[in-house]
Amino acid sequence: MVLRPYMMIAPAVIIFCLFFIYPIFYMIYLSAFDWNFVSPTKDFVGLENFKSLLAEREFIEVMRNSAVYTFLTVFFTLTISLFLALWLNKQGVIYSFVQGAIFSPHIISLVSISMLWMWMMDVDYGLLNWFLGLFGIDKVQWLTHPDTALYSLVIVAVWKGVGFNTLVFIAGLQSIPKDMYEAASLDEASPWRTFTKITLPMLSPTLFFLAVISMIGSFQIFDTISIMTQGGPINSTNTFVYYIYENGFRFFKIGYASAAGVILLIVVSLLTIIYFRLLAKRVHYR
């Protein structure tokens, strides 16, 4: 009887250790070696992979791209989702229809979405440039110019992520007690004061949760980059995971790629800790 609870959770623990914990430690182990993925021998190099990475200009650009992409994606996704949720948190057929419409991109595969947006952002035949041309605006090189390619990927990420975040925000809004708004109405509180003093604090657990998972997900972006830009032009859209993929499975620099993976793990862990230390104190749990 004493062992029964441990036996029941044992399969989940074994799977978690086998597919999550072990790969992390093996990646850390490989980061100390120079290995081409084919040779049976691994040459121990210690911290040389990390020194080479941090001294490489391309990797510094990758870190900058990842930071810019993550910040813009998280900020715009959460901001747009919050205002959409405030608008759609009503009863009615039209609101239900709009909720379903904006959620639909979330269930579509990133491959299909990437192909769709590649056509829409085509310089000569894309729908976006055709639309801009109606207003006399010059064609935009969405995916083919270093100054616009990364921001184009941000647009795709925001378009896909807004629907899921909006529905989560709506669920959070519907859990706020109605009597709080009734009390604010009796006190003749303005809409802005009601939003900042009631809605936003009561939504803080939802906002905190979405901010953390959006940040982690943005750092792991791979599909859209692999299909739409392949890290170009001129390394302007290369981010952590695609950089790891290139070095590991195209150039067969497994130790180098593992070192980049360790740095990604450290960066995401540190940002998550900072999120919890700085923002968790502002979260109001009922």
Describe this structure in words.
This protein is an all-alpha fold and 286 residues long. It has one domain: MetI-like (MetI-like fold, Orthogonal Bundle). 72% of the residues lie in helices and 1% in strands. A two-stranded antiparallel sheet has the order 1-2. Helix 3 (57-88) runs parallel beside helix 7 (149-174). The chain is globular, with a radius of gyration of 23 Å.
Question: Average pLDDT, to the nearest integer?
Answer: 89
Largest sheet: 2 strands, antiparallel
Overall tally of structural domains: 1
Terminal Cα separation, in Å? 37 Å
Q: Sum up the overall morphology in one term.
A: globular
Kindly report the CATH topology.
MetI-like fold
The total beta strand count reads 2
Structural class: mainly alpha
Question: In angstroms, what is the radius of gyration?
Answer: 23 Å
Widest beta sheet: strand line-up: 1-2
CATH superfamily: MetI-like
Order of helices and strands: HEEHHHHHHHHHHH
Quickly name the level 1 CATH class: Mainly Alpha
Low-confidence stretches: none
Strand content: under 5%
Helix content: over 70%
CATH architectural category: Orthogonal Bundle
Specify the number of helices. 12
Keywords, please?
single chain, about 290 residues, MetI-like fold, two-stranded antiparallel ribbon, 2 strands, cell membrane, transport, transmembrane helix, MetI-like_sf, transmembrane
